[in-house]
Amino acid sequence: xxxxxxxxxxxxxxxNTMLDAAESILMDRGLEHLSMDDVAEKAEVSKGSLxxxxxxxxxLVLGICYRATHLLNESFRxxxxxxxxxxxxxxxxxETYLHYVKNHPQYYSSMKFLDNLHSTREGxxxxxxQLCTQNRQEGFRLMVEAIQxxxxxxxxxxxxxxxxxALLFWSTSHGVVTISYMHQNYEHFKLLDRIGxxxxxxxxxxxxxxxxxFAQQTHES
Length: 221
Fold this sequence. Notes:
The chain has ten helices and no strands. It is mostly helical. The chain folds into two domains: 54 residues, Homeodomain-like (Arc Repressor Mutant, subunit A); 163 residues, Tetracycline Repressor, domain 2 (Orthogonal Bundle), CATH 1.10.357. α7 crosses α8 and α8 runs antiparallel to α10. The mean pLDDT is 89.
């Protein structure tokens, strides 16, 4: 291994150590309590060294978001590797998204942070912002692929283009998983309790309605 390669590996190791520390703090204390000082202390690096890798707190959260979107896309790809019908793939993608949010709430909070940055135009010079955006676009492409397979195998209607159906699927499923996230992580959010509905029932009802809307008549149940 050459000097340059060793140097790059060491830089990547340090970067991951810092992100591991930030992720741990995010999981334990929440986004509002994440600070550069605490990350440097937990990663056992100087604050100056931390700033060599990350411009500020926003950059750190976007680094976590890059991990988050990468992991979600990998989970989606595993679904698409199966031999299910396109309609079944759509349901599996929805379930994968829901389970992802349940198992990785800190990752989902970093993705919500990305949405807020897009609305305020902050941090536009961050390399992680571009990487997260690219991952989001890839995740959408995977949804389009699943729906297109369904159109090709006859399990999904062809009334709208695959991209338009994918947009509807993404936007509505995002709302469902956000309610699930809030139910798990915000004590004051009591909507599901008030109406007497469990998270699993909410998701099953959503996918039932979605499947009937997407499905060809012969595939409806």
